[in-house]
Amino acid sequence: xxxxxxxxxxxxxxxxxxxxxxxxxxxxxxxxxxxxxxxxxxxxxxxxxxxxxxxxxxxxxxxxxxxxxxxxxxxxxxxxxxxxxxxxxxxxxxxxxxxxxxxxxxxxxxxxxxxxxxxxxxxxxxxxxxxxxxxxxxxxxxxxxxxxxxxxxxxxxxxxxxxxxxxxxxxxxxxxxxxxxxxxxxxxxxxxxxxxxxxxxxxxxxxxxxxxxxxxxxxxxxxxxxxxxxxxxxxxxxxxxxxxxxxxxxxxxx
Length: 254
Hints:
Blueprint: E1 10-13, H1 21-30, E2 34-39, H2 43-54, E3 60-64, H3 70-84, E4 89-92, H4 108-136, E5 139-144, H5 148-151, H6 157-177, E6 182-189, H7 195-200, H8 206-211, H9 220-231, E7 242-245
Helix pairs in contact: 1-9, 3-4, 4-6
């Protein structure tokens, strides 16, 4: 059976200290990749995660950056390249958190934060890392989107606007860099069970679960598995895809 082998590759995961990001980082490392653990403010968690990864025999470093600022992203690229070598896999997972409310009540700043952390992060990461991928004729750009981008429920407007803008960037980037054998894809989690849910005993939601064809929420590991697949040679002919990992709760049409 063919497995996922990322040995000899370096992966950057933005927002790696988050509930989903840390499992992505661990999973990519388990597949053999060296990991750049990005954080914005949680240095302690980033260092803990990097040490955990290094204990498995992989290389890992921590990198701090404001993902909404191009200068920060460029400095992060330089640090990762100097310490781990060229980045083969970029996972854009970071997003600014905010309080959801209606369009009429949502602040302008919340729309701006989602544009900056979804759209501009994607653009900045491309500008920083894609040129070297083009030179090598290979690379993986993976964005973490959301099922919300297809649902368009009440109170989601800023988040959905940011993620739908991100979707446009990724689809166009896929066409622009495909000739260089760089794939550009998105994983769209549903409402996902994380370490916080396990600690709090909140894995089940009858209302949500009843709407999902598989009748339960997915896990952080389910999301990380999809990321690892897209990062691997097994997904070498998949690009421009938006892949929901939500038990069928949303299904893109054709």
